[in-house]
Write a structure and sequence with these properties.
Elements lengths: L2 E8 L2 H30 L8 H6 L1 H7 L9 H23 L17 E4 L6 E8 L2 E6 L3 E6 L7 E10 L2 E9 L12 E6 L3 E5 L4 E3 L3 H4 L1 H12 L10 H35 L2 E5 L3 H4 L6 E2 L7 E2 L3 H14 L1 H15 L2 E5 L28 E3 L6 E3 H20 L1
Parallel strand pairs: 8-11, 11-14
Antiparallel strand pairs: 1-5, 1-7, 2-6, 3-4, 4-5, 6-7, 8-9, 9-10, 12-13, 15-16
Helix pairs in contact: 1-4, 6-7, 7-10
Length: 406
């Protein structure tokens, strides 16, 4: 099993300067390689430029600029060029598929936040033996950086990445051959219904409150964004006060992101610990959070009819704040590690079907869903909480799926 570990770095002031220089120089290499590809395309070069040709130029680049490019790991620079090559591969793949492609763009220094070392021991070294009671990672050109290791690393380390998130630095270890830590069977099966009023509702009738992390910091975030908006948007001069305002907004978002991730991990762990099988709806949040298409007014040229975009934007914001997609990925990963089974089921009519498992008749009708929270069957009169009904129907479909597999 492949697993990743993310630990907080605690660099010194000098090491933090070196880390910023490392990101800036890798960003320069990325943009230079992108410019070379753009120039070749514009001038109609018959020879296509790929990763192999650009990687072969690294030796000359490092010799020409030893102060900036020569001080960093050769393999990490190759990984940066591979990153650009993957961006072009994805671009051409979307072109062939008839999708709307996005041409690879230049990276600003403030938006290039990760450097990858493809192999432990080549430009980096993970030292699991504590030195002065602290675990450290050695990075070429930076030195031995202290690591806040909060859990054991298992398996064989394949790649090491250094990532900047706001004013924090992290090291990410990707390991393979990680042994699974299977939990003892509990003999219970549960269905969960994701929602807005409640983050999730189980088929047992339990509710997990929705923390609404963005709502908690709404006033603080609005104030920080208003202050940032006072600076000219397209000004070429980025003053110290402008950078401080941008960091303030980023700090609020980073705090929300960390709290949401912690909540998702703890909630998923509780479900995995208490149940052998967890069923959920196969949700496609990307499509669910799309803005409604504009409705042209046939009587007035150039005018548009109301399409409910304002109401839909509020729902989209609530769905994205809940983070259903991230939670379901975490749930699936934890289930694989613990030897549990997660079953995604078809979400159609799960909130409109009268559930037989609650003594219902199985009748499906739009009118059964009276309000956001109330379900009342128009055929048999069964009344229950709408989210509880949805979770029960999800569990019933998961049972049918298990029978089909068996």
């Amino acid at each position: 099993m492949i697993c990743s570990y993310k630990f907080l770095l605690r660099p010194t002031a000098r090491q933090e300067v070196a880390l910023r220089e490392m990101l800036a120089d890798h960003c320069s290499l990325y943009n230079g390689a992108l410019q070379e590809r753009r120039d070749a395309y514009r001038h109609g070069s018959k020879t296509s430029i790929r990763y192999g040709g650009q990687s072969a130029q690294l030796k000359e680049i490092r010799a020409y600029d030893p102060e900036r490019q020569g001080r960093w790991s050769f393999s990490s620079q190759q990984a940066t060029l591979r990153r650009l090559d993957k961006a072009f591969q994805a671009f051409f793949r979307r072109v062939k598929a008839g999708q709307t492609p996005g041409y690879p763009r230049f990276k600003g220094v403030g938006h290039f936040d990760i450097v990858t070392f493809p192999k432990d021991g080549d430009g980096c070294r993970w030292n699991s033996t504590p030195h002065d009671q602290h675990v450290r990672v050695r990075l070429q050109g930076v030195g031995h950086v202290r690591v806040h290791q909060h859990r054991f690393v298992r398996g064989r380390i394949k790649t090491i990445s250094v990532k900047r998130e706001g004013n924090r630095w992290y090291v990410i270890l990707v390991c393979d051959n990680v042994p699974a830590e299977e939990l003892a069977p509990t003999g219970t099966v549960v269905g969960i219904d994701m929602g807005i009023m409640h983050f999730l509702t189980t088929s047992d009738g339990g509710h997990e409150p929705n923390p609404r992390f963005l709502g908690v910091v709404a006033e603080e975030l609005a104030e920080a964004q208003r202050h940032l908006a006072t600076f000219p948007k397209h000004s070429r001069q980025r003053t110290k006060r402008h950078r401080a305002a941008a960091r303030r907004v980023a700090k609020v978002y980073a705090k929300v992101r960390r709290k949401r991730l912690d909540f998702h991990h703890k909630t998923a762990r509780a479900l995995i610990s208490d149940n052998d099988v967890i069923a959920h709806e196969l949700l496609k949040t990307t499509g669910m959070t799309k803005s409604p298409a504009p409705k042209p007014d046939p009587e007035n040229d150039g005018a548009f009819l109301a399409n409910g975009a304002a109401a839909k934007s509020g729902l989209n914001k609530s769905i994205l704040d809940a983070g259903w997609g991230q939670f379901l990925v975490i749930l699936a990963n934890k289930a694989e590690s613990a030897g549990r089974l997660v079953i995604p089921v078809d979400p159609r009519n799960t909130s409109r079907r009268c559930p037989p498992s609650l003594g219902g008749c199985g009748h499906i009708a739009k009118e059964n869903r009276v309000t956001q929270a109330k379900f009342q069957c128009t055929a048999c009169g069964l009344t229950a909480h709408a989210d509880h009904v949805g979770a029960s129907n999800i569990l019933d479909r998961a049972g049918l799926a298990l029978c089909d597999v068996a």
